[in-house]
Amino acid sequence: MSSIKPFLSSTIGKKVLVAVTGILFCLFLLFHLTNNLIIYTGEENFNFLVNSLEKIKPLIRVLEFALASILIVHISNSVYLTIQSKRSGSVTSLSDTKKPNAPLSSRTMFLTGSILFIFLVVHLSTFWFNFQTTDDHSAYYNMVTNSAIGFGNIFITILYLTAMVILGFHLKHGFSSALQTLGLKDTSLGRVINAVAIVFWLFVPAGFFSIAFWFGILNGGK
Ligand code: HEM
Q1: Which of 29, 31, 97, 200 has the smallest number of Cβ neighbours within 10 A?
Q2: Residue 119: domain span
Q3: Which atom of ligand 1 is nearest to the CA of 164?
Q4: CATH at residue 167
Q5: pTM reported for the whole predicted model
Q6: Among 55, 203, 215, which residue's Cα sits nearest to residue 147?
Q7: What digits encode the pLDDT tens for the residues 150-185?
Q8: CA–CA distances in Å: residue 200 to residues 31, 84, 115, 162, 204
Q9: Ligand 1 and 215: CB distance under 6 A
Q10: How many domains does the chain have?
Q11: Distance from Cα 132 to the centre of ligand 1, integer Å
């Protein structure tokens, strides 16, 4: 325990924390998407799913607490590394802002992360907050599709569509950066993880994108 503290305070320790928490959040996103895809099967099934999750609320609360802790560690260490890199002028951050040839997704990690943070604040203060506070257990589907906070509102739809493209960019570079940090980049395990990572940086954002597109653009919130 005494040797882990100095490690986690070091630059490489903080990079490992960012990498591991990023991967853990991706696992949540896969689970979250799987649940949300049920919305395609209709109002009844979606409301039934949310009500089932309501029945295991204590467990959900523990998972939400773990998720919030994961996000706090991810964001605080990313911000620290970015500030440290700007101050020292060295390339210690997660984004290669100082390398002109680095890919766009890599040079903009801090920017895309900040936009995703704003998206998350809007997302939680609309969907999550309203799901928690409603007494009407048959209203969940309508909340996602209505014109107040749901995809019936074109501004909400545009926000989600844009945020999902940004999420894809952020996760694409995030995965390759995490593999480098964990020393796996040029190993055979790294190549396997790199191939699996496409599920997270392409299919997961595309799945969320499809929901916003289907309900917000193609069906006008229905
Ligand atoms: C089409 C896209 C999405 C839809 C329809 C959607 C829907 C929802 C809903 C309905 C809730 C409330 C669940 C409940 O309280 O039972 C929720 C919570 C949440 N969402 Fe999303 N979500 C989407 C995309 C995202 C994305 C891209 C992220 C992260 C980048 C995200 C992160 C979260 C978090 C952290 C929570 C709170 C934890 C939880 O209660 O599960 N969501 N979402």
Answers
A1: 31
A2: 4-218
A3: 27
A4: 1.20.1300
A5: 0.91
A6: 215
A7: 999 999 999 999 999 999 999 999 999 999 999 998
A8: 11, 29, 19, 17, 5
A9: no
A10: 1
A11: 12
